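Q: Can someone sanity-check these two? First one:
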Amino acid sequence: MKVNIGDQAPDFKAITDEGKEISLSQFRGKYVILYFYPKDNTPGCTREAISFRDRHDELEKEGAVVIGISSDSASSHKGFKEKYSLPFILVSDDGGKIREMYGAKSFLGPSRTTFVISPEGKVIHVYNSQVNPARHPEEALRAIRLDKERSGVTNV
């Protein structure tokens, strides 16, 4: 299955870097940025995470929650988050079930794909780029601002 723009985002439950269970549906009413990445502590994934960290205040001001997803364990995520002072949620996708739900994979393995989900739970933007990991937060911000402009919303 591949999730496309306009689709209802599939709900899921997962374990966070803090060992807590969360579900996508608990963030209804906010923009959610789900970014799938291959692996903690690799050069591209670290660059992407740092980019989300550096844009986090802007994303929060737009009413967005950032959730990073990879198949690494919760303890790996915890170390990665602490090492780079990441202010957002990382979840463990053991077995790749969430990645499978969203179709966030490639022939070469896990893809680097970001989904932006509206407060109503609809996918409003999908961005996939293995070679430009730092661009993912910029794309998410652009999509949220465009969605707000289209709907006439000034604040969420």
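And here is the second, same format, sequence then tokens:
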Amino acid sequence: MPRVYVSSVINAPAASVWERVRDFNALPRWHPRIRESRIENAEPSDKIGAVRDFRLQNGDRIREKLLGLSDYDLFCTYAILESPMPLTDYVATLRLTPVTDGDRTFAEWSAEFECAEAVADDLVAGIGQNVFQAGFDALKRHYAR
């Protein structure tokens, strides 16, 4: 089972970063690769089981289901339901941890999934760079203002 793991330090308090990323429907507001998003069936975006249907900047469509969300532990776990990527059983977690030295945030984003062995390395690299690191880089730019 391939695993993707990316971490970063964001120069902002964890509570502030969490406020920006917590909304399961807010990807277009902070991630540069996401064009639009909506929560199906007008569910609240923080309801476990809510499904977000979003489009990437290139027009690809992805549907994901919220599996876990904690305002105390600052994490969000979700699964991909539909994607153009050749993978299955994808589950990811975005987790924030306060760094008390300098009031910064340690951010971790990880995922595990099943796929054909021939595409595993490309998927791990692509998700790690184009999704996880791209999101962290956008957050770092936002808080550098």
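A (reply): Looked at the second one. The radius of gyration is 15 Å. The CA atoms of residues 10 and 105 lie 5 Å apart.
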